[in-house]
Amino acid sequence: MKDPIRPRLPLTLWLGVILILGCELLLVIDVTGRCAAAPEGVIGMLARWVAIHMTPLAWVGYLLVVDGLLARRGTLGRGSGGAARTSPQRFGVCFVTSIAVWLFFDWVNFYFIHAWAYHSLEPLGRAHEWIAKCVAFGAISPAMFLTAELYQQLGLHRVRGPRIALGRPACLAMIAVGIPGLLFPFVVQRPVGCLTLWVSLVLVLDPLNHLLGGSRTPTLIGDWQHGRWGRTISLMAAGLTCGFFWEFWNYWAAAKWTYDLPFLGPAEPYRLFEMPLAGFAGFAPFALECWVVFGTILLVMDRAHLRFAEPLPDDDAIV
Asked: Considering Cα of 202, then 203, then 204, then 208, what sign does the dihedral take?
């Protein structure tokens, strides 16, 4: 009897691995020769181009890798196959709206709190810079959501915990707490505004989604009421995972960002890459916030009868 033929690894997985490894190799070449004012030769110029575009390139590669891993699990009958394949319109909405979400955070930062800064973007030219930013910003939410989807399929969807009954009064109380937190960065106008920037939208929007969306809009509150904690944990784990890779790929890039977080006091100098170690804690609620904002966007689209984004395939799905 012949052995069953094992499914081949998805093409996107191979393409993603090749893209990431190729970029890493060229980045090493650029870093070792960065003392030169202008790179020499085809390899040197290509390495400098990759170093400048490392963030959008690496995150395209990351999306391809995670899509391939999800597709692999799907062919083995262990998962849905990934949103990019099973729900392409929903995935497209996620990518486009991710740009808008991060532009909001950038607006808060550059006009009010000044907690991070971009470097070496000026030589790109305005149009070139915005194309690179749109690719990088568009990958933010999909990267976290696909990673969370992978964690769910690896078993976190089975995590159960206490049922927390949050009725209408509790939801309104969360909103009442969240609104001052949302306003805090605009009032204080210093980097300390980061302390509420990554949490307040969860407190404001998730209760609203829960109260207004009904069963059509999954919410964190709805999960907690039924004792389902897997989606919350998966999203937070995905935020931390992507946060590590954001900082890792950013550190040696020629065009990059840095942080100024003086409110951390003596903890600020202790860093992993450009991010203070304490700052990594913010990536966990950031993932929750992006997912809740995406749910709000879908709820508004639903109310406006723009229902071309596919529904979630099951109660545990992320995107």
From this structure: positive
Q: How many CB atoms lie within 10 A of CB 319?
A: 21
Domain presence at residue 61: no
In a domain, 319, yes or no: no
Domain of residue 193, residue span: 87-303
Q: Which of 182, 100, 97, 106 is nearest to 145 (CA)?
A: 97
pLDDT at position 228: 94
Residue 30: inside a domain: no
Mean pLDDT, the chain, rounded, equals 91
- Separation between Cα atoms, residue 86 and residue 250, nearest integer Å: 31
Residue 5 has pLDDT above 70, yes or no: no
Q: What is the pLDDT of residue 1?
A: 45
Count the neighbouring beta carbons within 10 Å of the beta carbon of residue 280: 17
Q: Is the pLDDT of residue 296 over 90?
A: yes
Residue 249's Cβ-side half-sphere holds a number of Cα atoms within 13 Å equal to 26
Count of the separate structural domains present in the chain: 1
Is the entire prediction scored with pTM above 0.90?
Answer: yes
Could you tell me the CA-to-CA distances from 283 to 40, 178, 218, 240 in Å, in that order? 38, 18, 21, 5
Please give the pLDDT value at position 101.
96
Residue 221 lies in a domain: yes
Terminal-to-terminal C-alpha distance of the chain: 41
